[in-house]
Design goal:
The protein has about 300 residues and is an alpha/beta fold. It is about 55% helix and about 10% strand. The protein is built from 15 helices and 8 strands. The chain starts with 14 loop residues before the first strand and ends with a helix. Strands 3-2-1-4-5-6-7-8 form an 8-stranded mixed sheet, with helices on both faces. It folds into 2 domains: about 160 residues, Rossmann fold; about 110 residues.
């Protein structure tokens, strides 16, 4: 296996993928489009591996062990529960790079590869991969969480730069908290939209109309957060200290059921923290809103 003369040189390590699902397809296509030699794909689904290899050009669908031996850098783009068993089941070469792409699983899951002399790390693109085509377009500008040391860290940062991604260094033992927190900016947004749709349905508004109406509002909120930061982007009655409106909200939600009222209260408490950070409200107003949120 050839060592790179410099991790920041024009040439990048040859790459193979074990796993041809949505994340693997997106990352492989992104790297190949930038000139990285993606030499092999291995997957439990031979048809998925063949399809991806055909899309990439210059790439071969191989049995998993052969694919793992075909490149200097191997990405394990398999489900979390399969990372450790996959690393343990395969033979690795000293100096080979073995990287998983999970956000929640520790790099220690690659211990079997490390014991054989491989360099191990994590490379987690912080993006949604439900639609690989859209995910590919969104990679530039997205963050990628990198956990690695030495030459492998340099190589992964160089690949991130090649893809136009922003690197985020993770410390060992922090991946579950990092990944769980990211859910609040991803799938948990859907939970909040679902809560709004449920409330609108309860007062007779069509559920599909709720999504059409609320998505532009959500996009506007995200745009404001990007432009101004979280605290300064805050809008609505809590940002204004409008105790009367908050009281009417609570009355309406409590009438629909305890879970609706409690959900509103919890989110409002977090908003109150942002309102305090914004400096727009004095302490007395903040205290009145806080007392109202704690009332039954």
């Amino acid at each position: 296996m050839n060592e790179l003369a410099s991790p920041l040189a024009v040439s990048f390590p040859s790459v193979a993928f074990i796993g041809a699902g949505r994340l693997g397809r997106t990352l492989a296509r992104g790297l190949a489009a930038k000139g990285v030699a993606v030499r092999a794909v291995g997957s439990r689904s031979a048809s998925a591996a063949h399809t991806l290899a055909t899309e990439l050009g210059g790439c071969t669908a191989l049995p998993i062990q052969e694919a793992a031996a075909a490149a200097e850098l191997v990405f394990l783009t398999v489900p979390d529960d399969a990372i450790a068993p996959s690393a343990a089941a395969l033979r690795w070469l000293p100096g080979q790079r073995v990287v998983h792409c999970s956000g929640a699983t520790e790099v220690a899951a690659l211990a079997a590869a490390q014991e054989q002399g491989a360099l191990v790390g994590g490379f987690h693109p912080l993006q949604i991969f439900s639609d690989p085509e859209r995910a590919l377009a969104l990679l530039p500008g997205s963050t990628v969480a990198i956990e690695a040391e030495g030459v492998l860290a340099d190589e992964l940062h160089a690949l991130a730069a090649l893809l136009g991604m922003q690197p985020l260094a993770l410390r060992p033992g922090t991946r579950a908290a990092y990944h769980g927190a990211a859910s609040f900016a991803a799938s948990f947004l859907l939970s909040m939209l679902d809560e709004a749709a449920q409330v609108w349905a309860a007062i007779g508004l069509p559920r599909d109309q709720a999504l059409r109406s609320l998505l532009p509002l959500a996009r506007g909120t995200l745009d404001a957060a990007e432009a101004k930061g979280l605290a300064q982007a805050l809008a609505g009655p809590i940002s204004r200290g409008d105790v009367g409106v908050v009281a009417r909200h609570l009355q309406a939600f409590d009438a629909l059921g305890e879970s609706h009222g409690q959900f509103y209260r919890e989110l409002s408490r977090r908003q109150l923290t942002l309102a305090a950070e914004s400096g727009r409200l004095d302490a007395a107003v903040l205290a009145r809103v806080a007392a109202l949120l704690e009332s039954a």
